[in-house]
Amino acid sequence: MNKELPPGLALQKVDERIMTLNVGPQHPGSGHMRIIVQIDGDFIVACDPDPGYVHRGEEKMAEYRNYITNIPHLERPVIHDSCNVLYPYVLGVEELLGIEVPERAKYIRVIASELNRCVYTMYWLAIYGIFLGHSTMFMWPAGDRELLIDLLEKMTGARVTHAHFVPGGVRNDLPPNFEDVCLRQVNYFEKRIKEYAAIFYDNPILIARTANTGVLSREDAIRLGTTGSVLRASGVDYDLRKKEPYDVYDELDFQTNVLKEGDSYARSKIPWLDMMESCRIIRHALQKMPKSGSVRVKLKPNPKGGDASVYKRVESGRGSLGCYIVSDKKPEPYRVKLSVGSFRNLIALPYLLKGEKLGNMPSVYWSLNYWPVEADR
Amino acid sequence: MNTATGIIKALNSGIKHLAIKRFTLRYPEEKLKFVGDGYQFDPSTGVGIAGYKGRHMLFHDHCTGCQLCSIACEGVAEAIAMVKVPEEYKQNKKAIMPQIDYGKCVFCGLCVDACPFYALYMTNDYELSSFSKEGLIYTPAQLQVKPFVSQDSEIKITDRGATHG
Ligand code: SF4
Ligand code: SF4
Predict the structure, then answer these.
(1) Which pTM was predicted?
(2) pLDDT along chain B (165 residues), means of 10
(3) Rounded to whole angstroms, how far apart are CA atoms B103 and B24?
(4) A38 domain-assigned
């Protein structure tokens, strides 16, 4: 202990009560990322999220591909929500190239992106359920999700990673008889998710575990720049579909869900309430959609943008998702930057976990609606 | 609601499902039904025709060897290589046709959108596993074969719930 140290060196004093735990990156409770937590007994005193394990260089890759061949890889960050991930990019390229999208295509895009939002949320809910040890809540969403995946597969030809949106509309028109099938399955889906109330959301065990854990106040939510369900669970009414309507959202009838509590329970309830709104949007859009017409504007091969830049954002399953594109008169974009909701919500994690019990970490962490691959891009 | 009723209600909503037919699809005994014969593209209108994006199908009597599909795939997955074919076709002087490596293909269908001669479509075939990497490379002759895909299950919704009947 009393070893002679070389001059200039000093030993750091160690706090023997504090233990550092390394959760992840393979831990099922963290996804593809690491959370370094320091605990005192059972309580977390500090937490340092460490993302970056699934960085794929999507943004750099986009500089070497043209505006069309960028589509399949740009939807990879969130394959369950691939239409919404692509949405801001496609809207941006349309503005750069000055394309006017046919009316029917706009409705098809809204339907596809709402279906996709539900598919993503169901997957997220399934994992949230299993994090809390509720395996029925893993099985049910994973099964009911199939209803919507089936619709998307009929519509776009792929179960995930649809590559359906293109600048100028969508790749193909709806298959015959799609409206009836869609209405039937969406109605049944809505009936099913309402059944989740008794087994999950009104379940006293869940409420006891998640209410009043990881509380994010309204002021902190705004100050930290959180978005999507995290922001709305803290009492801020902010939904880009209402605030900056894109395509035909301003013509559709829906409302945004806001809760005041800001705890894990409220954060996990908002996406579930949003799914019911999505069902309403889909029904209304199917009703208002023009029954025939073009769905895609023909572009010339290798379209070039002018000397311009554009920023577009949409409301994805995880909050605001922006895409900044700079073009320099070449067929390839000069720069594509994604601003993703997951990364913005992760910033809140160290604040939420301070003083929580270690056992609450998975539920607080996953209630942030975080998707590791999207945050790393 | 007090705690005991809440827990009983939660249990009850799960137990009700014991009497309901399962929803799960029993793959591979049952297989899902798709719309149409696979994704196709009509170059005259510039719009695709809805269908499943599975393994490709190449029509030798339409393909001109123009390489547009291969150029389209270069920015995506570099899955298409143009190879020599032994047959001679009037419209295909160079006698080259696409060969697709399904170890690389991501089934985006952009090559189908690129073909101006109605020569490349996609089919409902999605069971493409192989024991070797070479087995995933499909030559023009293999791509010419129309796959047989059994499709028997669809989602059926009744008052008692949904099944894959
Ligand atoms: S489907 Fe996409 S990845 Fe596959 S060969 Fe065609 S262009 Fe390439
Ligand atoms: S499949 Fe079509 S695009 Fe490809 S070489 Fe043949 S004609 Fe050209």
Answers:
(1) 0.88
(2) 80 82 82 84 84 88 86 87 82 83 89 88 87 88 83 78 75
(3) 29
(4) no
